[in-house]
Design goal:
This protein has 2 helices and no strands. By secondary structure, it is mainly α. The protein has a domain of about 30 residues.
């Protein structure tokens, strides 16, 4: 018999898209009500865009070759 994983007391029991909508609503409320949060959000967004762009550029200029991957079939399938 399998037992369910223990839940935290702070868990709301939301999963999937419901949890995503709650998270987006919380961010929207914070952006509207707290001016300092707007600055933090913009700075975080800019840092994320710069890092994502740098990684995309790096992988475009240095693609992974078959010889770079050691174990191509880890499950032996």
């Amino acid at each position: 018999m399998m037992t369910a994983e223990p839940r935290s007391r702070l868990s709301l029991g939301l999963q999937g898209s419901a949890a995503l909508f709650v998270a987006l609503a919380v961010v929207a409320i914070l952006l509207i009500t707290l001016p300092a949060y707007r600055v933090f959000f913009v700075i975080s967004l800019l840092i994320g865009i710069v890092i994502a762009g740098g990684l995309a550029l790096w992988h475009r200029l240095h693609p992974i070759k078959d010889t770079d991957v050691e174990n191509k079939r880890p499950l032996g399938l």
